[in-house]
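Hey, can you fold this one?
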Amino acid sequence: MNFSKMPKIELHCHLDGSVRPETIIDIAKKDGIRIPSFDTEEIKEELIAPLNCESLDEYLKRFSIPNLVMQSKENLKRITYELYEDAAKENVKYMEVRFAPLLHTKMGLSIEEIILSVIEGMKEAEENFDIYGNIILSCMRTMAVESAFEVVEKGKEFLGKGVVAIDLCASEEEGFCREFIEPIRLAKEYGFRVTIHAGETGIGKNVLEAVKWLGAERIGHGVFIHDCVEAYNIVKQKQVVLEMCPTSNVQTKAVNQISDHPVYDFHRDGIKVTVNTDNRTVSNTTMTKECDLVWNEFAMSDVEYKQIYMNSVQASFANEKVKEKLKTYSLDI
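Sure. Predicted structure:
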């Protein structure tokens, strides 16, 4: 199967982990920003996490350089546009991009300006390429809970205008959901959909709590439900969709190697899984690469590809009109 030509859906992609290295260099030169090198290959060494990362925390260190160049409206718009352009070139038909607005306030931008700039980049790409998109606002678990309220309050005016959902991300500690019950409850009242990073490190119980306490409709990663029977059962019973990111999961040591990844076992057991990049630059990957990796490793069929494609369409936070259009692409599978 030629995955570069297959229609694809991506539901879990971080903006700051998917910046073109060449763009980082170009912006740094233009704006006078100090970065470790202006050589493309050398900057890639700084941006791309190795497969033998020791942990999620080591992986997350790769985000510091991209954030240096993501502090202006012009740069945020450009970087978003380029991400959608890159995705469209490999036949991704719909992509939800997530980012944490509070990481981009260092030069004085307001949260509203930051969100609008990202939306504008996405909208311009939609006009120029055969792709649809939506934006997910991430709240950082490493910041005070008040910061999550701020993102929810400032982000609500963009619901229906490009923003669709709220997320919690960053380092994963056991029991993190308890702190964020109130801001996520408020987000749901405003109309945000909910996807939560959980079970990426060795804490399957976090997935259980994300579903029970936060009302998560989707889970980012969710690998470690295999170590928590209650989490596994609630995901399967409620048909909570897992946004799985195979290469990233190897890098962060959620699994030791791709053959250990539970994506196929979950799929065979009736859990709804999707395949995603997580971070195109940090993981040095594309949707084409991720699909090649998974389907070749587990000898999956064309029928299974179509099943997972349709899982992604149904689980997306797109409106019904876009979903109907995305379903038509399945005829090409």
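The beta strands are 8-14, 92-99, 132-140, 163-169, 193-198, 218-221, 241-244, 273-275. Let me know if you want another pass with a different chain boundary.
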